[in-house]
Design brief:
The protein is of the alpha+beta class and about 400 residues long. Helices cover about 35% and strands about 25% of the residues. It is globular, with a radius of gyration of 26 Å.
Length: about 400
């Protein structure tokens, strides 16, 4: 399994996180040496042959910086009444023959080699991550100057591409710039001076922090590059967590004072802000945030056939519930309070079941750390809340 150190070698990962991550762009040249290319041309062709996956959402065709009309590359005769239309490979190949560019979105869903890198980046940065592939031909520029709403690691898989990286950087953008000539002119006018340009060759890596203005143009031959997007949670993500947590507070469930009673409204808002500040600063809310960040990652399927593993079953012997404390979450079973920490959503789920398997518990809470789940199950077993059992096959 590839590590982050291997992914950005020979650059030092500690220096990268200290000086570049979220701060400034970086080109890592490898002099044309490819270490573990996840997507050479044959592998990309194999992925494109999985016709059932590709539709007007997952596959985009661009010609001279404009998206092709769906009827130009999709099979509208097989389009469902609701949902995206499937692509027509013959139409796509015809457009590529005219010099169009291809964007294969979410290619990590159909290419295990790319998916392995995406999962590594998810773990490394506690972020959502996926991969799109860009295929273009001689001296083609599929997109004008733009910036992305997430960090980017662009890996040059085949051919060469000239990238221009500009001084300007949008301030933590969350909404895309709308398409159109006016927007394109605005982007050019606001991109600033050229920071650097670089010819990306096979094996090279280019890191662009979120909001960094850039554009690229293909060299003399065909180019294929994989863009890994990395999207950690922002402070805006906390509002849903706050809503869930504060629903347990009576003052937040109460009606607000009448709009014309300004003094009472100010007093209530001050009270609610104190509740919110106390929650935001509590260790238990930090657990909510960590769990949310962990939930951005996806786990590998982990099949090891023909090996078989018999599930471990448990029966719930005592009813209980999970309570939020300022410092932690506890499971209340009988007269006992058992600290459950990060695993509290899983414990709340299992306490509502008559029986469950450890594998089912993991499937219901894929973001939970396996060792934490095992440890909290042992505590619940020692407390007599759950007991190991066998299910007749």
């Amino acid at each position: 399994m590839v590590t982050f150190a291997e992914f950005i070698a020979p650059f030092d990962p500690v220096e990268f996180k200290a000086r570049y991550y979220g701060k400034q762009p970086l080109h890592i040249g490898r002099q044309g040496r490819i270490a573990g290319n996840p997507l050479p041309w044959p592998r990309f062709n194999q992925a494109l042959d999985l016709n059932a996956y590709w539709n007007e959402d997952t596959l985009k065709v661009f010609y001279r910086s404009r998206a092709a009309l769906r009827e130009s590359y999709c099979d509208l005769g097989r389009a469902p009444t609701s949902g995206p239309a499937p692509v027509d490979p013959i139409k796509v190949n015809a457009l590529l023959g005219l010099g169009a560019s291809l964007v294969a979105n979410h290619v990590h869903n159909v290419c295990p080699e790319v998916a392995a890198v995406a999962r590594m980046l998810q773990r490394e940065f506690a972020a959502g991550c996926g991969a799109n592939v860009y295929c273009s031909f001689s001296e083609v520029q599929a997109f004008g100057t733009h910036f992305d709403l997430h960090d980017v690691f662009a890996y040059q898989a085949e051919g060469e591409k000239l990238w221009h990286v500009y001084e300007a950087r949008a301030d933590n953008p969350v909404n895309p710039v709308p398409p159109g000539d006016e927007a394109e002119k605005w982007l050019v006018d606001t991109r600033g001076k050229l920071l650097f340009e670089v010819v990306m060759r096979p094996g090279d890596l280019l890191y662009l922090p979120r909001g960094q203005y850039h554009d690229a143009i293909t060299g003399e031959g065909a180019s294929l590059h994989v863009t890994y997007w990395v999207k950690p949670a922002t402070g805006l993500s906390l509002f849903k967590l706050l809503e869930t947590a504060l629903a347990g507070e009576s003052d937040f469930r109460a009606y607000l004072p009448a709009a014309d009673d300004a003094a009472a409204l100010r007093e209530r808002l001050a009270l609610l802000s104190r509740h919110m500040a106390r929650l935001l600063g509590s260790p238990s809310f930090a657990i909510d945030v960590r769990n949310m960040q962990r939930g951005l990652a996806t786990a590998a399927a982990g099949f090891e056939l023909p090996q078989q593993r018999r599930p471990q079953y448990y029966a719930t012997a005592m009813r209980g519930r999970v309570l939020r404390r300022a410092e932690d979450f506890v499971a209340v079973v009988g007269q006992q309070e058992i600290p459950v920490g990060n695993a509290y959503p899983a414990v709340a789920w299992l306490l509502g079941r008559r029986a469950f398997s450890f594998e089912e518990l993991r499937a219901q809470h894929p973001f939970a750390d396996v060792e934490e789940l095992r440890a909290v199950l042992e505590r619940l077993v020692r407390a007599g809340a759950v007991v190991p059992t066998e299910i007749a096959s």
